[in-house]
TrEMBL record, chains A, B:
One Pfam family from the record: ARMT1-like_dom
Listed InterPro entries: ARMT-1-like_metal-bd_sf (IPR036075), ARMT1-like_metal-bd (IPR002791), PH1575-like (IPR014444)
SUPFAM superfamilies: AF1104-like
Record's protein name: Damage-control phosphatase ARMT1-like metal-binding domain-containing protein
Damage-control phosphatase ARMT1-like metal-binding domain ranges (all copies): 2-275
Length: 281, 281
Protein backbone atom coordinates (compact mmCIF):
# COMPACT_ATOMS: atom_id res chain seq x y z
CA UNK A 1 0.00 0.00 0.00
CA UNK A 2 1.25 3.43 -0.98
CA UNK A 3 1.95 6.10 1.67
CA UNK A 4 -0.65 8.35 0.03
CA UNK A 5 -3.18 5.55 0.62
CA UNK A 6 -2.15 5.44 4.28
CA UNK A 7 -3.24 9.07 4.64
CA UNK A 8 -6.56 8.26 3.02
CA UNK A 9 -7.08 5.24 5.28
CA UNK A 10 -6.36 7.42 8.31
CA UNK A 11 -9.07 9.81 7.08
CA UNK A 12 -11.45 6.86 6.75
CA UNK A 13 -10.75 5.84 10.36
CA UNK A 14 -11.53 9.37 11.59
CA UNK A 15 -14.63 9.52 9.44
CA UNK A 16 -15.99 6.25 10.86
CA UNK A 17 -15.00 7.17 14.42
CA UNK A 18 -16.83 10.50 14.13
CA UNK A 19 -19.89 8.91 12.57
CA UNK A 20 -20.28 6.00 15.00
CA UNK A 21 -18.26 7.20 17.98
CA UNK A 22 -20.99 7.89 20.55
CA UNK A 23 -19.66 4.96 22.63
CA UNK A 24 -16.22 6.23 23.68
CA UNK A 25 -14.91 2.83 24.80
CA UNK A 26 -15.87 1.21 21.50
CA UNK A 27 -14.39 4.12 19.58
CA UNK A 28 -11.06 3.83 21.41
CA UNK A 29 -11.04 0.09 20.64
CA UNK A 30 -11.85 0.73 17.00
CA UNK A 31 -9.14 3.37 16.64
CA UNK A 32 -6.48 1.21 18.27
CA UNK A 33 -7.02 -1.78 16.05
CA UNK A 34 -7.72 0.29 12.94
CA UNK A 35 -4.40 2.08 13.39
CA UNK A 36 -2.73 -1.29 13.86
CA UNK A 37 -4.25 -2.51 10.58
CA UNK A 38 -3.14 0.58 8.66
CA UNK A 39 0.33 0.60 10.19
CA UNK A 40 0.90 -3.07 9.40
CA UNK A 41 -0.72 -3.50 6.02
CA UNK A 42 2.07 -2.40 3.71
CA UNK A 43 1.80 -5.67 1.82
CA UNK A 44 -2.00 -5.61 1.55
CA UNK A 45 -3.75 -3.92 -1.35
CA UNK A 46 -5.52 -0.66 -0.51
CA UNK A 47 -9.04 -2.07 -1.09
CA UNK A 48 -8.27 -5.09 1.12
CA UNK A 49 -7.02 -2.84 3.89
CA UNK A 50 -10.21 -0.77 3.47
CA UNK A 51 -12.22 -3.98 3.74
CA UNK A 52 -10.50 -4.87 7.03
CA UNK A 53 -11.22 -1.40 8.44
CA UNK A 54 -14.90 -1.61 7.57
CA UNK A 55 -15.30 -5.19 8.80
CA UNK A 56 -13.73 -3.99 12.05
CA UNK A 57 -16.17 -1.06 12.26
CA UNK A 58 -19.11 -3.42 11.63
CA UNK A 59 -17.93 -5.72 14.45
CA UNK A 60 -17.19 -3.04 16.99
CA UNK A 61 -20.14 -0.73 16.31
CA UNK A 62 -22.49 -3.69 15.74
CA UNK A 63 -23.83 -2.15 12.51
CA UNK A 64 -23.94 -4.30 9.40
CA UNK A 65 -24.75 -1.54 6.93
CA UNK A 66 -22.70 1.46 8.06
CA UNK A 67 -23.91 3.82 5.33
CA UNK A 68 -27.51 2.63 4.92
CA UNK A 69 -29.00 6.13 5.21
CA UNK A 70 -26.53 7.77 2.84
CA UNK A 71 -27.09 5.01 0.29
CA UNK A 72 -30.84 5.34 0.41
CA UNK A 73 -30.62 9.13 0.21
CA UNK A 74 -28.37 9.03 -2.87
CA UNK A 75 -30.53 6.39 -4.59
CA UNK A 76 -33.71 8.38 -3.88
CA UNK A 77 -32.22 11.70 -4.95
CA UNK A 78 -31.09 10.48 -8.37
CA UNK A 79 -33.89 7.99 -8.99
CA UNK A 80 -36.55 10.64 -8.32
CA UNK A 81 -35.54 12.43 -11.52
CA UNK A 82 -34.96 9.30 -13.62
CA UNK A 83 -37.32 10.47 -16.36
CA UNK A 84 -35.51 13.81 -16.50
CA UNK A 85 -32.08 12.12 -16.89
CA UNK A 86 -33.59 9.79 -19.44
CA UNK A 87 -34.98 12.67 -21.50
CA UNK A 88 -31.58 14.39 -21.30
CA UNK A 89 -30.04 11.28 -22.84
CA UNK A 90 -32.69 10.55 -25.47
CA UNK A 91 -32.96 14.20 -26.60
CA UNK A 92 -29.22 14.54 -27.11
CA UNK A 93 -27.38 14.21 -30.44
CA UNK A 94 -25.42 11.26 -29.06
CA UNK A 95 -27.48 9.42 -26.44
CA UNK A 96 -24.85 6.73 -25.86
CA UNK A 97 -22.18 9.33 -25.19
CA UNK A 98 -24.34 11.32 -22.74
CA UNK A 99 -25.47 8.15 -20.94
CA UNK A 100 -21.85 7.00 -20.59
CA UNK A 101 -20.80 10.42 -19.30
CA UNK A 102 -23.60 10.44 -16.71
CA UNK A 103 -22.51 6.94 -15.60
CA UNK A 104 -18.98 8.26 -15.05
CA UNK A 105 -20.21 11.44 -13.36
CA UNK A 106 -22.29 9.35 -10.94
CA UNK A 107 -18.95 8.26 -9.53
CA UNK A 108 -18.71 11.57 -7.58
CA UNK A 109 -20.95 10.02 -4.91
CA UNK A 110 -18.56 8.36 -2.49
CA UNK A 111 -18.80 8.14 1.30
CA UNK A 112 -15.40 6.52 1.88
CA UNK A 113 -12.43 8.77 2.41
CA UNK A 114 -13.72 11.26 -0.16
CA UNK A 115 -16.32 13.93 0.28
CA UNK A 116 -19.70 14.23 -1.39
CA UNK A 117 -20.73 17.57 -2.87
CA UNK A 118 -23.55 19.29 -0.99
CA UNK A 119 -25.54 19.98 -4.09
CA UNK A 120 -25.17 16.81 -6.15
CA UNK A 121 -27.62 17.82 -8.87
CA UNK A 122 -25.94 21.10 -9.81
CA UNK A 123 -22.55 19.37 -9.62
CA UNK A 124 -23.81 16.80 -12.13
CA UNK A 125 -25.01 19.49 -14.52
CA UNK A 126 -21.68 21.26 -14.19
CA UNK A 127 -19.73 18.05 -14.89
CA UNK A 128 -21.84 17.33 -17.97
CA UNK A 129 -20.20 20.40 -19.55
CA UNK A 130 -16.73 18.99 -18.85
CA UNK A 131 -14.86 16.99 -21.49
CA UNK A 132 -13.45 13.52 -20.78
CA UNK A 133 -9.71 13.69 -20.00
CA UNK A 134 -9.36 10.22 -21.48
CA UNK A 135 -12.09 8.90 -23.71
CA UNK A 136 -11.86 5.45 -25.26
CA UNK A 137 -15.64 5.15 -25.40
CA UNK A 138 -15.68 4.49 -29.15
CA UNK A 139 -13.51 1.38 -28.64
CA UNK A 140 -15.81 0.40 -25.76
CA UNK A 141 -19.01 0.83 -27.75
CA UNK A 142 -17.56 -1.15 -30.64
CA UNK A 143 -16.50 -3.95 -28.31
CA UNK A 144 -19.96 -4.01 -26.71
CA UNK A 145 -21.65 -4.11 -30.11
CA UNK A 146 -19.57 -7.14 -31.05
CA UNK A 147 -19.94 -8.86 -27.67
CA UNK A 148 -22.20 -11.79 -26.94
CA UNK A 149 -21.80 -11.22 -23.20
CA UNK A 150 -21.02 -8.11 -21.16
CA UNK A 151 -20.15 -8.04 -17.46
CA UNK A 152 -20.72 -4.69 -15.74
CA UNK A 153 -19.05 -4.29 -12.33
CA UNK A 154 -21.18 -1.88 -10.28
CA UNK A 155 -19.79 0.67 -7.87
CA UNK A 156 -21.81 2.99 -5.63
CA UNK A 157 -25.36 3.73 -4.54
CA UNK A 158 -26.78 6.79 -6.31
CA UNK A 159 -24.36 6.19 -9.15
CA UNK A 160 -26.31 2.99 -9.86
CA UNK A 161 -29.21 5.13 -11.16
CA UNK A 162 -26.96 6.36 -13.99
CA UNK A 163 -25.62 2.83 -14.50
CA UNK A 164 -29.20 1.70 -15.07
CA UNK A 165 -29.80 4.53 -17.54
CA UNK A 166 -26.57 3.71 -19.40
CA UNK A 167 -27.39 -0.01 -19.49
CA UNK A 168 -30.92 0.77 -20.66
CA UNK A 169 -29.41 2.93 -23.44
CA UNK A 170 -26.87 0.24 -24.40
CA UNK A 171 -29.81 -2.18 -24.72
CA UNK A 172 -27.49 -5.22 -24.92
CA UNK A 173 -29.30 -8.60 -24.89
CA UNK A 174 -26.87 -10.28 -22.49
CA UNK A 175 -25.47 -7.90 -19.92
CA UNK A 176 -24.98 -8.80 -16.25
CA UNK A 177 -24.68 -6.16 -13.53
CA UNK A 178 -22.59 -7.08 -10.49
CA UNK A 179 -23.22 -5.89 -6.92
CA UNK A 180 -21.09 -6.46 -3.78
CA UNK A 181 -21.82 -9.51 -1.63
CA UNK A 182 -22.25 -7.42 1.54
CA UNK A 183 -22.58 -3.74 2.44
CA UNK A 184 -19.22 -1.93 2.36
CA UNK A 185 -19.06 1.88 2.49
CA UNK A 186 -21.78 3.07 0.03
CA UNK A 187 -21.09 0.37 -2.56
CA UNK A 188 -24.03 -1.21 -4.36
CA UNK A 189 -25.70 -4.35 -3.04
CA UNK A 190 -28.87 -6.19 -4.12
CA UNK A 191 -30.84 -3.72 -2.03
CA UNK A 192 -29.72 -0.88 -4.28
CA UNK A 193 -30.26 -2.79 -7.51
CA UNK A 194 -33.82 -3.61 -6.36
CA UNK A 195 -34.39 0.03 -5.42
CA UNK A 196 -33.53 1.27 -8.91
CA UNK A 197 -35.21 -1.79 -10.54
CA UNK A 198 -32.01 -2.75 -12.31
CA UNK A 199 -33.51 -6.20 -12.94
CA UNK A 200 -35.85 -4.58 -15.50
CA UNK A 201 -32.92 -3.83 -17.84
CA UNK A 202 -30.39 -6.66 -17.23
CA UNK A 203 -29.43 -9.59 -15.02
CA UNK A 204 -28.02 -8.81 -11.56
CA UNK A 205 -25.65 -10.98 -9.55
CA UNK A 206 -23.59 -10.59 -6.38
CA UNK A 207 -19.81 -10.98 -6.52
CA UNK A 208 -19.91 -12.84 -3.21
CA UNK A 209 -17.38 -10.59 -1.49
CA UNK A 210 -17.35 -7.42 0.60
CA UNK A 211 -14.30 -5.51 -0.59
CA UNK A 212 -14.89 -1.95 -1.88
CA UNK A 213 -13.42 -3.26 -5.13
CA UNK A 214 -13.36 -6.39 -7.26
CA UNK A 215 -10.68 -8.66 -5.79
CA UNK A 216 -11.23 -11.49 -8.22
CA UNK A 217 -9.59 -14.26 -6.23
CA UNK A 218 -11.93 -13.57 -3.30
CA UNK A 219 -15.10 -13.35 -5.37
CA UNK A 220 -17.48 -16.28 -5.81
CA UNK A 221 -16.49 -18.92 -8.37
CA UNK A 222 -19.66 -17.91 -10.30
CA UNK A 223 -18.33 -14.35 -10.64
CA UNK A 224 -14.86 -15.57 -11.54
CA UNK A 225 -16.30 -17.71 -14.32
CA UNK A 226 -18.46 -14.88 -15.67
CA UNK A 227 -15.41 -12.61 -15.63
CA UNK A 228 -13.31 -15.15 -17.55
CA UNK A 229 -16.05 -15.88 -20.09
CA UNK A 230 -17.45 -12.38 -20.72
CA UNK A 231 -16.53 -10.84 -24.07
CA UNK A 232 -16.43 -7.37 -22.50
CA UNK A 233 -15.99 -6.27 -18.89
CA UNK A 234 -16.92 -2.75 -17.77
CA UNK A 235 -15.41 -1.74 -14.44
CA UNK A 236 -17.06 1.24 -12.76
CA UNK A 237 -15.25 3.48 -10.29
CA UNK A 238 -11.83 3.79 -8.75
CA UNK A 239 -12.29 0.94 -6.26
CA UNK A 240 -12.89 -1.64 -8.99
CA UNK A 241 -9.96 -0.22 -10.95
CA UNK A 242 -7.64 -0.62 -7.94
CA UNK A 243 -8.45 -4.34 -7.83
CA UNK A 244 -8.16 -4.85 -11.60
CA UNK A 245 -5.37 -2.47 -12.61
CA UNK A 246 -2.89 -5.26 -13.30
CA UNK A 247 -5.35 -7.50 -15.13
CA UNK A 248 -4.21 -8.56 -18.57
CA UNK A 249 -7.55 -9.67 -20.01
CA UNK A 250 -8.87 -8.42 -23.31
CA UNK A 251 -11.72 -5.89 -23.60
CA UNK A 252 -11.70 -4.61 -20.03
CA UNK A 253 -12.83 -0.97 -19.81
CA UNK A 254 -12.53 1.34 -16.80
CA UNK A 255 -15.15 4.07 -16.37
CA UNK A 256 -14.40 6.41 -13.48
CA UNK A 257 -13.70 9.78 -12.04
CA UNK A 258 -10.10 9.83 -10.78
CA UNK A 259 -10.47 10.46 -7.05
CA UNK A 260 -6.88 10.97 -5.93
CA UNK A 261 -3.52 12.09 -7.30
CA UNK A 262 -2.08 8.58 -7.07
CA UNK A 263 -4.67 6.95 -9.35
CA UNK A 264 -4.87 10.05 -11.57
CA UNK A 265 -1.09 9.80 -12.01
CA UNK A 266 -1.30 6.12 -12.94
CA UNK A 267 -3.89 6.96 -15.58
CA UNK A 268 -2.00 10.04 -16.79
CA UNK A 269 -4.83 12.42 -15.89
CA UNK A 270 -5.64 14.86 -13.07
CA UNK A 271 -7.70 14.41 -9.93
CA UNK A 272 -11.46 14.76 -10.65
CA UNK A 273 -10.92 14.04 -14.35
CA UNK A 274 -13.48 11.89 -16.17
CA UNK A 275 -12.09 8.73 -17.73
CA UNK A 276 -13.15 5.89 -20.03
CA UNK A 277 -10.08 3.79 -20.68
CA UNK A 278 -9.26 0.30 -21.88
CA UNK A 279 -6.79 -1.57 -19.61
CA UNK A 280 -3.20 -2.13 -20.67
CA UNK A 281 -2.95 -5.57 -22.25
CA UNK B 1 5.56 -13.20 8.90
CA UNK B 2 8.12 -15.97 8.53
CA UNK B 3 7.79 -18.56 5.74
CA UNK B 4 7.58 -21.30 8.38
CA UNK B 5 4.55 -19.48 9.78
CA UNK B 6 3.02 -19.44 6.30
CA UNK B 7 3.08 -23.25 6.27
CA UNK B 8 1.43 -23.35 9.69
CA UNK B 9 -1.24 -20.87 8.59
CA UNK B 10 -1.94 -23.03 5.53
CA UNK B 11 -2.43 -25.99 7.90
CA UNK B 12 -4.85 -23.90 9.96
CA UNK B 13 -6.88 -23.10 6.84
CA UNK B 14 -7.14 -26.80 5.95
CA UNK B 15 -8.01 -27.67 9.53
CA UNK B 16 -10.86 -25.13 9.63
CA UNK B 17 -12.08 -26.08 6.14
CA UNK B 18 -12.22 -29.76 7.12
CA UNK B 19 -13.94 -29.05 10.42
CA UNK B 20 -16.62 -26.66 9.10
CA UNK B 21 -16.64 -27.50 5.41
CA UNK B 22 -19.99 -29.25 5.01
CA UNK B 23 -21.18 -26.29 2.90
CA UNK B 24 -18.97 -26.54 -0.20
CA UNK B 25 -19.75 -23.06 -1.48
CA UNK B 26 -18.89 -21.47 1.87
CA UNK B 27 -15.74 -23.56 2.11
CA UNK B 28 -14.55 -22.45 -1.32
CA UNK B 29 -15.21 -18.85 -0.31
CA UNK B 30 -13.33 -19.31 2.95
CA UNK B 31 -10.35 -20.94 1.26
CA UNK B 32 -10.09 -18.27 -1.41
CA UNK B 33 -10.01 -15.35 0.98
CA UNK B 34 -7.96 -17.19 3.61
CA UNK B 35 -5.30 -17.94 1.01
CA UNK B 36 -5.38 -14.30 -0.01
CA UNK B 37 -4.83 -13.24 3.62
CA UNK B 38 -1.91 -15.62 4.08
CA UNK B 39 -0.33 -14.74 0.73
CA UNK B 40 -0.54 -11.02 1.41
CA UNK B 41 0.24 -10.72 5.09
CA UNK B 42 4.03 -10.69 5.06
CA UNK B 43 4.01 -7.47 7.05
CA UNK B 44 1.44 -8.65 9.59
CA UNK B 45 2.47 -10.48 12.75
CA UNK B 46 1.65 -14.19 12.82
CA UNK B 47 -0.97 -13.87 15.60
CA UNK B 48 -2.67 -11.01 13.75
CA UNK B 49 -2.80 -13.04 10.56
CA UNK B 50 -4.25 -15.94 12.63
CA UNK B 51 -6.82 -13.54 14.03
CA UNK B 52 -7.89 -12.52 10.51
CA UNK B 53 -8.23 -16.18 9.46
CA UNK B 54 -10.43 -17.02 12.44
CA UNK B 55 -12.56 -13.88 12.12
CA UNK B 56 -13.08 -14.88 8.48
CA UNK B 57 -14.08 -18.41 9.51
CA UNK B 58 -16.54 -17.03 12.08
CA UNK B 59 -18.12 -14.80 9.41
CA UNK B 60 -18.35 -17.37 6.68
CA UNK B 61 -19.36 -20.40 8.77
CA UNK B 62 -21.61 -18.26 10.99
CA UNK B 63 -20.12 -19.77 14.16
CA UNK B 64 -18.92 -17.43 16.89
CA UNK B 65 -17.14 -20.04 19.01
CA UNK B 66 -15.46 -22.37 16.51
CA UNK B 67 -13.93 -24.69 19.12
CA UNK B 68 -16.67 -24.63 21.78
CA UNK B 69 -16.86 -28.43 22.06
CA UNK B 70 -13.11 -28.99 22.22
CA UNK B 71 -12.77 -26.26 24.85
CA UNK B 72 -15.48 -27.75 27.05
CA UNK B 73 -14.04 -31.25 26.64
CA UNK B 74 -10.53 -30.15 27.65
CA UNK B 75 -11.84 -28.13 30.62
CA UNK B 76 -13.97 -31.05 31.80
CA UNK B 77 -11.23 -33.63 31.34
CA UNK B 78 -8.67 -31.80 33.44
CA UNK B 79 -11.06 -30.23 35.96
CA UNK B 80 -12.62 -33.61 36.74
CA UNK B 81 -9.37 -34.68 38.42
CA UNK B 82 -8.60 -31.33 40.05
CA UNK B 83 -8.26 -32.87 43.51
CA UNK B 84 -5.83 -35.48 42.11
CA UNK B 85 -3.63 -32.80 40.51
CA UNK B 86 -3.86 -30.78 43.69
CA UNK B 87 -2.72 -33.74 45.82
CA UNK B 88 0.13 -34.34 43.36
CA UNK B 89 1.27 -30.77 43.98
CA UNK B 90 0.76 -30.63 47.75
CA UNK B 91 2.36 -34.05 48.38
CA UNK B 92 5.50 -33.18 46.42
CA UNK B 93 8.78 -31.95 47.93
CA UNK B 94 8.46 -28.72 45.98
CA UNK B 95 4.78 -27.85 45.40
CA UNK B 96 5.55 -24.56 43.68
CA UNK B 97 7.85 -26.28 41.19
CA UNK B 98 5.35 -29.05 40.38
CA UNK B 99 2.47 -26.59 40.04
CA UNK B 100 4.54 -24.42 37.68
CA UNK B 101 5.52 -27.47 35.63
CA UNK B 102 1.90 -28.60 35.32
CA UNK B 103 0.96 -25.07 34.21
CA UNK B 104 3.58 -25.29 31.44
CA UNK B 105 2.59 -28.85 30.51
CA UNK B 106 -1.04 -27.73 30.15
CA UNK B 107 0.18 -25.84 27.10
CA UNK B 108 0.14 -29.10 25.06
CA UNK B 109 -3.59 -28.59 24.53
CA UNK B 110 -3.85 -26.53 21.37
CA UNK B 111 -6.44 -26.79 18.60
CA UNK B 112 -4.84 -24.29 16.26
CA UNK B 113 -2.30 -25.54 13.75
CA UNK B 114 -0.87 -28.02 16.27
CA UNK B 115 -2.22 -31.40 17.22
CA UNK B 116 -3.58 -32.56 20.55
CA UNK B 117 -2.40 -35.89 21.97
CA UNK B 118 -5.12 -38.56 22.04
CA UNK B 119 -4.44 -39.53 25.62
CA UNK B 120 -3.84 -36.20 27.34
CA UNK B 121 -3.63 -37.63 30.86
CA UNK B 122 -0.84 -40.13 30.19
CA UNK B 123 0.98 -37.48 28.15
CA UNK B 124 0.84 -35.14 31.16
CA UNK B 125 2.26 -37.81 33.46
CA UNK B 126 4.99 -38.52 30.94
CA UNK B 127 5.89 -34.82 30.66
CA UNK B 128 6.04 -34.43 34.44
CA UNK B 129 9.14 -36.70 34.30
CA UNK B 130 10.79 -34.39 31.78
CA UNK B 131 13.17 -31.63 32.92
CA UNK B 132 12.72 -27.99 31.89
CA UNK B 133 15.01 -27.09 28.98
CA UNK B 134 15.13 -23.53 30.30
CA UNK B 135 14.14 -22.90 33.89
CA UNK B 136 14.21 -19.42 35.34
CA UNK B 137 11.46 -20.27 37.81
CA UNK B 138 13.53 -19.28 40.85
CA UNK B 139 13.87 -15.73 39.48
CA UNK B 140 10.14 -15.79 38.74
CA UNK B 141 9.16 -16.99 42.22
CA UNK B 142 11.40 -14.36 43.81
CA UNK B 143 9.90 -11.63 41.65
CA UNK B 144 6.37 -12.80 42.52
CA UNK B 145 7.22 -12.87 46.25
CA UNK B 146 8.40 -9.27 46.07
CA UNK B 147 5.53 -8.09 43.85
CA UNK B 148 2.55 -6.10 45.01
CA UNK B 149 0.69 -6.89 41.78
CA UNK B 150 0.94 -9.81 39.34
CA UNK B 151 -0.70 -9.97 35.91
CA UNK B 152 -1.15 -13.50 34.53
CA UNK B 153 -1.94 -13.71 30.80
CA UNK B 154 -4.01 -16.85 30.23
CA UNK B 155 -3.73 -19.08 27.21
CA UNK B 156 -5.89 -22.13 26.45
CA UNK B 157 -8.92 -24.02 27.70
CA UNK B 158 -7.95 -27.18 29.61
CA UNK B 159 -4.60 -25.59 30.39
CA UNK B 160 -6.54 -23.08 32.52
CA UNK B 161 -7.19 -25.86 35.07
CA UNK B 162 -3.45 -26.04 35.75
CA UNK B 163 -3.21 -22.25 35.72
CA UNK B 164 -5.79 -22.21 38.51
CA UNK B 165 -3.85 -24.82 40.47
CA UNK B 166 -0.61 -22.89 40.02
CA UNK B 167 -2.27 -19.59 41.02
CA UNK B 168 -3.86 -21.30 44.03
CA UNK B 169 -0.41 -22.61 45.03
CA UNK B 170 1.23 -19.19 44.52
CA UNK B 171 -1.44 -17.75 46.83
CA UNK B 172 -0.55 -14.16 45.91
CA UNK B 173 -2.90 -11.52 47.40
CA UNK B 174 -3.13 -9.41 44.25
CA UNK B 175 -2.98 -11.49 41.10
CA UNK B 176 -5.17 -10.86 38.03
CA UNK B 177 -5.83 -13.56 35.43
CA UNK B 178 -6.48 -12.34 31.87
CA UNK B 179 -8.80 -14.02 29.34
CA UNK B 180 -9.36 -13.15 25.65
CA UNK B 181 -12.15 -10.72 24.78
CA UNK B 182 -13.80 -13.15 22.33
CA UNK B 183 -13.47 -16.82 21.40
CA UNK B 184 -10.45 -17.50 19.20
CA UNK B 185 -9.25 -21.07 18.56
CA UNK B 186 -9.34 -22.78 22.02
CA UNK B 187 -8.06 -19.72 23.91
CA UNK B 188 -9.56 -18.97 27.31
CA UNK B 189 -12.54 -16.63 27.66
CA UNK B 190 -14.72 -15.75 30.68
CA UNK B 191 -16.70 -18.93 29.99
CA UNK B 192 -13.63 -21.03 30.72
CA UNK B 193 -12.60 -19.06 33.79
CA UNK B 194 -16.12 -19.50 35.18
CA UNK B 195 -16.04 -23.21 34.39
CA UNK B 196 -12.89 -23.77 36.44
CA UNK B 197 -14.01 -21.23 39.08
CA UNK B 198 -10.88 -19.15 38.60
CA UNK B 199 -12.62 -16.27 40.42
CA UNK B 200 -12.24 -18.27 43.68
CA UNK B 201 -8.45 -17.83 43.60
CA UNK B 202 -7.84 -14.45 41.89
CA UNK B 203 -9.39 -11.60 39.92
CA UNK B 204 -10.28 -12.28 36.26
CA UNK B 205 -10.46 -9.69 33.47
CA UNK B 206 -10.80 -9.73 29.69
CA UNK B 207 -8.11 -8.20 27.50
CA UNK B 208 -10.79 -6.80 25.20
CA UNK B 209 -9.34 -8.35 22.05
CA UNK B 210 -9.67 -11.55 20.03
CA UNK B 211 -6.13 -12.30 18.86
CA UNK B 212 -4.68 -15.71 19.83
CA UNK B 213 -2.00 -13.67 21.58
CA UNK B 214 -1.59 -10.49 23.58
CA UNK B 215 -1.25 -7.67 21.04
CA UNK B 216 -1.01 -4.91 23.61
CA UNK B 217 -1.88 -1.99 21.35
CA UNK B 218 -5.18 -3.66 20.44
CA UNK B 219 -6.13 -4.63 24.00
CA UNK B 220 -8.48 -2.53 26.14
CA UNK B 221 -6.97 0.52 27.83
CA UNK B 222 -7.75 -1.22 31.17
CA UNK B 223 -5.51 -4.14 30.22
CA UNK B 224 -2.80 -1.83 28.89
CA UNK B 225 -2.75 0.06 32.21
CA UNK B 226 -2.64 -3.15 34.27
CA UNK B 227 0.23 -4.38 32.08
CA UNK B 228 2.16 -1.14 32.59
CA UNK B 229 1.54 -1.03 36.34
CA UNK B 230 1.97 -4.70 37.30
CA UNK B 231 5.18 -5.54 39.17
CA UNK B 232 5.33 -8.95 37.49
CA UNK B 233 3.74 -10.23 34.26
CA UNK B 234 3.43 -13.94 33.54
CA UNK B 235 2.77 -14.78 29.90
CA UNK B 236 1.43 -18.28 29.27
CA UNK B 237 1.89 -20.09 25.98
CA UNK B 238 3.51 -19.50 22.64
CA UNK B 239 0.78 -17.20 21.31
CA UNK B 240 1.25 -14.65 24.09
CA UNK B 241 5.03 -14.90 23.65
CA UNK B 242 4.72 -14.14 19.92
CA UNK B 243 2.95 -10.88 20.78
CA UNK B 244 5.34 -9.91 23.59
CA UNK B 245 8.71 -11.21 22.39
CA UNK B 246 10.09 -7.75 21.71
CA UNK B 247 8.75 -6.19 24.91
CA UNK B 248 11.40 -4.49 27.00
CA UNK B 249 9.53 -4.33 30.31
CA UNK B 250 11.00 -5.57 33.55
CA UNK B 251 9.85 -8.81 35.25
CA UNK B 252 8.07 -10.37 32.31
CA UNK B 253 8.20 -14.19 32.42
CA UNK B 254 7.25 -16.59 29.62
CA UNK B 255 5.90 -20.02 30.59
CA UNK B 256 5.36 -22.29 27.61
CA UNK B 257 6.00 -25.41 25.67
CA UNK B 258 7.86 -24.49 22.45
CA UNK B 259 5.47 -25.57 19.71
CA UNK B 260 7.54 -25.07 16.57
CA UNK B 261 11.17 -24.96 15.45
CA UNK B 262 11.02 -21.23 14.78
CA UNK B 263 10.06 -20.23 18.33
CA UNK B 264 12.20 -23.00 19.84
CA UNK B 265 15.15 -21.59 17.89
CA UNK B 266 14.46 -18.06 19.14
CA UNK B 267 14.48 -19.37 22.72
CA UNK B 268 17.53 -21.58 22.15
CA UNK B 269 15.61 -24.80 22.92
CA UNK B 270 14.04 -27.66 20.94
CA UNK B 271 10.46 -28.19 19.80
CA UNK B 272 8.28 -29.59 22.64
CA UNK B 273 10.74 -28.37 25.27
CA UNK B 274 9.35 -26.93 28.52
CA UNK B 275 10.38 -23.35 29.23
CA UNK B 276 10.17 -20.75 32.00
CA UNK B 277 12.16 -17.74 30.86
CA UNK B 278 12.46 -14.06 31.67
CA UNK B 279 12.29 -11.79 28.62
CA UNK B 280 15.36 -10.06 27.28
CA UNK B 281 15.48 -6.56 28.74
Amino acid sequence: MNSECLVCQAKTINHIANKFGSDKKATAKFKEEANYIVANSQSLSTPYSGLLLHRLAKRIFKTENLYANEKLKANKLLHLNYSYWKSLVSNSDNPMHVAAKLAVIGNIIDYGAHSVPDDILSEINHLLEKEFALNESEEMFEAINNAKTVLYLGDNAGEIVFDKLFIETLNHPNLTFVVRGEPIINDVTYEDSHFVQMEDVCKVISNGHDAPSTLLENCSSELQKLYRDADVVISKGQGNLEGLLDEKRNKLFFMLMAKCDLIAGKLGVKKKDLVIKQNKK
